[in-house]
Design goal:
There is one protein chain. This protein has 12 helices and 14 strands. With 450 residues, the chain is α+β, with helices and mostly antiparallel strands. It folds into 2 domains: 3-112, Ubiquitin-like (UB roll) (Roll); 125-443, Creatine Kinase, Chain A, domain 2, CATH 3.30.590. The strands form 2 sheets. Strands 7, 8, 9, 10, 11, 12, 13 and 14 form an 8-stranded mixed sheet that branches. Strands 1, 2, 3, 4, 5 and 6 form a 6-stranded mixed sheet that branches. Helix 3 packs antiparallel against helix 6, helix 3 runs parallel beside helix 8 (358-375) and helix 8 packs across helix 10. The protein is globular, with a radius of gyration of 22 Å.
């Protein structure tokens, strides 16, 4: 069978008899950047795999290198990257017919590379499947459309709308606010349709030029693939209209930050939601998983908020949680139970930032649920009222978060100890790189005053 015959239907519809010129063979690194190589379609048809050094998982976001090589030292052995043709999708912004294909990473003994983010998520999902459970997730993606910014020394500003005025803040759910950048949204829809992605809804969020896209619930790996693809899709749509799309957790100081809320539910072998009891009530495991999130999210936040900027999002009364309280239909808590009928009952983790790697963010959240299921603790009492009035309960800087992560041996056992070792070293290296930069605040207030 020819490889083209196995492609998803959305790809076949996009190609529609045309010649495929190029295939981008890609894989996510730790920050979530697509790494790989582009090859002519004729060459892709002849290859079963390709190779990249495993050091791509030791690279920081700035392009530096973390000293995280294993016992063999810095020899950069090749990984074997095998295409997952189920992930094949169009790159509709290109001039020619180009496809993207996500690859799985193996070592030369055919074992999964433990530091590959997609493999980390697969490992966690498989732990649930061994218990006869199918995890279901639904991510929400928040991001800003901003004016082009080619000078990092300048603040990020809202994009110019079609009215000739900058995008306005405090316009949550406004349809006219979305219309201000309608052409960008139109291209997002068009690109998503060409790629075979189903958008559940697009809304204006509270920030100036801040947009939320909801995706349909489904398999965690498939949804993480879609978020991985969507980030590139959205950036490309913005560039067509002379603006930038940013997934920074806190791009504009006076505006709210951008989250990637993650909704969780779990289906048993009979296809039933395990959070639902015989009379439609809430089951013990429902509460156990809430407790798991409360107990283990502090140790996992380094994966959900992976950069120095991530912690600027956690501001009291500013549309982001500052603790791990839980409540029903309460957006001030870190853990929310949305309104739903019993069969759609789910738990929403509101801690994750949109700057996290979607594979790692979803893996970390699911890992906390898994540990809750194992430990069978009960959560704190449901919070009543405005949770911003409660005690703060999450780390407020990356260094503290990494210390908690390093000591979380149970969490490491779920994710993979080798991944945890490398991840911590890479993130600490990034933090050290950040500390070498002198900020405008320091120059403004320290230069002549201390």
């Amino acid at each position: 069978m020819k490889w083209k015959d196995t492609l998803p239907e959305a790809v076949k519809a996009y190609v529609n008899g045309r010649t495929i010129d190029e295939v981008e063979c890609i894989i996510s690194d730790l920050p979530g950047v697509a790494r790989g190589k582009a090859v002519p379609a004729s060459k892709f048809a002849k290859q079963n795999n390709f190779y990249l050094p495993n050091s791509i998982f030791l690279q920081t976001l700035t392009g530096g290198w973390a000293e995280a090589a294993g016992d063999e030292g810095w020899v950069e052995p090749d990984m074997v990257l095998v295409p997952d043709l189920d992930t094949a999708t169009a790159a509709p912004w290109t001039a020619d017919v180009t496809l993207q294909v996500i690859h799985n990473a193996f070592d030369q003994n055919n074992d999964p590379i433990p530091t590959s983010p997609r493999n980390v998520l697969k490992r966690v999902v498989n732990l649930f499947r061994k218990r006869g459970l199918e995890p279901i997730v639904a991510p929400e993606m928040e991001f800003f459309l901003v004016a082009r910014n080619i000078d990092p020394a300048q603040p990020i500003r809202p994009m110019m709308g079609r009215s000739g005025r900058p995008a306005a803040a405090r316009q949550a759910y406004s349809m006219s606010a979305v219309d201000e950048y309608g052409p960008v949204i139109d291209d997002i829809y068009d690109f998503a349709e060409a790629q075979g992605f189903e958008i559940d809804g697009i809304t204006q969020e509270g920030g100036a030029g801040q947009v939320e896209i909801n995706l349909r619930h489904g398999d965690p790996v498939k949804l993480a693939d879609e978020v991985f693809y969507f980030k590139r899709l959205i950036r490309e749509a913005a560039l067509k209209h002379d603006c930038f799309a940013t997934f920074m957790a806190k791009p504009i100081a006076e505006e709210p930050g951008s989250a990637m809320h993650i909704h969780h539910s779990f289906i048993d072998a009979e296809g039933q939601n395990i959070f639902v009891g015989p009379q439609g009530g809430e089951t013990d495991v429902f509460y156990h998983m809430i407790a798991g999130l409360q107990n283990h999210l502090p140790s996992a936040i380094a994966m959900l908020a992976p950069y120095v900027n991530s912690y600027r999002r956690y501001v009291k009364d500013h549309s982001a949680p500052i603790n791990l309280e839980w409540a029903r239909d309460n957006r001030t808590t870190g853990i929310r139970i949305p309104l739903s009928d019993p069969q759609a009952r789910r738990i929403e983790n509101r801690i994750a930032g949109m700057d996290c790697n979607p594979y790692l963010g979803i893996a970390a959240s699911l890992a906390c649920c898994y540990l809750g299921m194992e430990e069978q603790d009960r959560p704190d009492k449901q919070y009543r009222g405005d949770a911003y009035d409660g005690e703060e309960g999450i780390p407020y800087d990356l260094f503290t978060a990494l210390d908690l992560f390093d000591n979380a041996k149970k969490l490491h056992g779920i994710l993979d100890p080798e991944f945890a070792r490398v991840y911590s070293i890479v993130k600490r290296t990034e933090y050290s790189e950040f500390l070498q930069v002198i900020s405008p605040w320091e120059r403004e207030h320290l230069l002549l005053n201390v």
